[in-house]
Structure formats: C-alpha cells, structure tokens
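quick one before i forget lol
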Amino acid sequence: MNDYTSFADIYDDFMDEQFVARLLDVLEHYTRRFPPPGNRLLDLGCGTGTVGIEFARRGWEVIGVDVSAAMLEKARAKAKEAGVSVDWRERDMTSFKLRKRVSLVTCTADSINHLRREEDVAETFRRLSRALTPGGVFIFDINTPYTLERAWSDQTHVGRRGLVSYSWKHHWDEKKQMSRLDGTFKLEREGEPVTITQRFWEKAYEVDVLSRLLERAGLQLLDSADFFSLARLTPTSTRAVLVGGKRL
C-alpha cells in the first residue's frame, strides 16, 4: 500500500469537484439499478470520508475503513462538521474484519489499483464478500490499464486544482505492470507557501482478472462500464466502474 500521511493535508484541496460529483452520481445510479438489501455501508479505502459522509447524510449506517490515520483524522473532522455519525476504523483493506454484515461495499477513487499484488486484491475481495449480506452489492472503480500504460506513461502533467498547483511525473514499469507517480503539490496556508511531495504506485488490472477474483470470492460480476459514460468499456476507456453481487 502507499503512504498517504503527507498527502492527507491537501487531499480534499486537490480532489476535482467534478470527479467527486460524478462519483456520487455513479454510486447513485448503481444503487438504484442493483438495490442493496439494507442501508448499512462499508466504505473501503475511505480516505477523508467523502463517500461515507454523503451516505450518512442520506440515513445510511456507515463504516469507513482506511489504512491512513491522517486521512481518518480529516474524515472525523468532516463528519463532525457535517453533523453525521460514521464508524471510522484504521485498518488495511487486506486484513479488516466486521462482526456485523453490511448490504453495500464501496471502494472508490482507484483504491484497488493501490493494491500492488493480485493476491492482495483477492484477499480484499474475500474479506468484503464475507462482510456482505447475501444479495449485497460491491461497487468499485479503477484506472484502466490503458490509462496507466499509455495515457500516463512517462509523461509529466502540470496544472491546478482548487487551491493546489501540481506536477505529476509518471513512469510505467512494464515488468511490474505498475505506474509510479511522483507528485509535487504547492499551495499557501495562512499566507505561507507549502510544498508537499508524494509518491504513489498503481497496479494495472484487467477487468477479466478482477471478474475472476470476484468469482473466487463468491461474488458475481453484475456490470462493468466506462466510469464517465456508463457505456460499454472500450480499449481507450480511462476509468472503469465494476459492480459485484453476493450470491443469495
């Protein structure tokens, strides 16, 4: 897994508001299309809690799991400000346990790509399958192999999101089938310039591989689609959304 301690301070400043809005729309679409049998949510890799807090606003009972204490600190502050109650837990996705089952699991913002080994994805799927009630639903998104290998490969992207100016340098490792992302982020806090550097790794996973791992975990692939259009995936789709269902 990647270390998000320093990145937590600017994560919400850096997040694209249009992406967040689209993400919530996608989750709304699929929870209507495949209604979960209840209103108890597990948000894996919850980060600063955006998804979990939104569901809590809608009356869901929410558990947010993340490996980063710094991210969870931000999530707790946001939930308090929003006036909602969320059960935040500092756990790795590959080792969490729940005593009470949930009806919906979400794992968004390409969190699955941050698992660097196929066996870690398999273990995560097994654990969330055990956490789901029969008929429960699992929704997640990924950066596609096309994005990591071609759209990002060995390029530098410079821009600004909100209050943060950034520079991303991407390097594709063919042997590992992973993209290394080196980020430099600059902003002002209380009138003082702040620079944060962060390195991430994202592993490329084909949809058929993820489908096979879902099946092994007792989950059926209900749908896979282009994240932005919800149309059928194409060879140049940059982000995919996948939906799994726990067998009755």
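fyi Residues 17-33 form the longest helix (17 residues).
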